[in-house]
Design a protein that fits this description.
The chain contains nine helices and ten strands. It is α/β, with parallel strands linked by helices. The strands form two sheets. Strands 1-2-4-3-5-6-9-10 form an eight-stranded mixed sheet, with helices on both faces. Strands 7-8 form a two-stranded antiparallel sheet. The longest helix has 18 residues. The termini are far apart.
Length: about 290
């Protein structure tokens, strides 16, 4: 195994099987809003150990230079994801895309714009900010979001930091204080861009044809299951799965059911590999 970083300041995380013949499968993962590739490391290592090449890049506006997030646009995220995808896609027979929070929304958009995505893995998809920790004054947010005020205010990250497991929450809280995992706040400007991207994805969701796995917690503190159910009910995917978690919050890769998320991911991929060998017409008939 060899881990390499294309741009150290942006914390890119890449796992490639260089000692052996390059595998035919790869997955590109996208992290969450104000997060970093670090939050996907264990998940990436799990996929690598299962035979995937894994690409996890730090999104524009994130990384060492925190000031950048105040000027980033959702179009920057979309263009960045598409560029990376097109650079790598032809090197693999199967190429999956996935992510957490903003990363899941970005993976959906990638499938909207690229019909050759093999499959999608969407964790804690954030199309709506309606979780149970959103403050009571959320109804005032549009005043800040849709005016110049969005460049001057932030939405503070606070307990429970998206994690139900107390031990994991304390560990992540310490890392956040060192800016290792994520920023400790959400600038309103970046929330505005996330909501713009989410609106685009909702508007074009019927254009998603790639097989998809959606995993969402019933107790997600940032975004309710409304987001996940919207995706499941509106994508045009001939093969789709939806799993709800009952003992986790938003950061499902750190919480009580992280092993369940990883195992379900492999179950989905293996089932998809099997179904890809079944004539499409036969598979569609089975789903009716």
């Amino acid at each position: 195994m060899k881990s390499q970083s294309a741009r150290k300041t942006q914390m890119d995380y890449i796992l490639i099987h260089r000692e052996t013949v390059q595998p035919n499968r790869a997955v590109m993962l996208f992290h969450g809003l104000t997060g970093s590739p670090y939050e996907l490391k264990k998940y990436a290592k799990f996929l690598y150990d299962k035979g995937f090449d894994v690409y996890c890049y730090c999104l524009p506006g994130h990384g060492d230079h925190k000031i950048d997030i105040y000027s980033v646009k959702e179009s920057d995220w979309r263009k960045f994801a598409n560029k990376r995808y097109k650079e790598l896609r032809n090197h693999y027979a199967d190429f999956f895309a996935g992510g957490l929070c903003l990363g899941a929304v970005l993976a959906l958009n990638l499938a909207i714009e690229n019909k050759d995505v093999t499959g999608l893995i969407c964790l804690s998809t954030t199309l709506f900010l309606d979780g149970w920790t959103i403050p009571w004054y959320n109804f005032l947010m549009p005043v800040g979001l849709y005016t110049i005020l969005r460049y001057y205010y932030t939405f503070p990250e606070r307990e429970p930091y998206g994690i139900k497991n107390l031990k994991a929450r304390n560990a992540v809280s310490k890392l956040m204080s060192k800016n290792t995992v994520a920023m400790d706040n959400y600038p309103l400007s970046s929330i505005y861009e996330l909501l713009l991207l989410s609106k685009k994805v909702r508007h074009n969701i019927k254009k998603v044809f790639a097989p998809i796995l959606i995993i969402h917690s019933l107790e997600d503190d940032l975004t309710s299951t409304k987001s996940a159910k919207f995706v499941f009910n509106n994508v045009s995917s001939f093969y789709k799965e939806y799993m709800e978690l009952k003992d986790s919050y938003h950061l499902v890769l750190y919480d009580n059911e992280k092993e369940k998320v990883m195992n379900k991911t492999m179950e989905f991929i293996e089932a998809l590999s099997y179904k890809r060998n079944i004539p499409l017409k036969e598979l569609q008939n089975k789903r009716k």
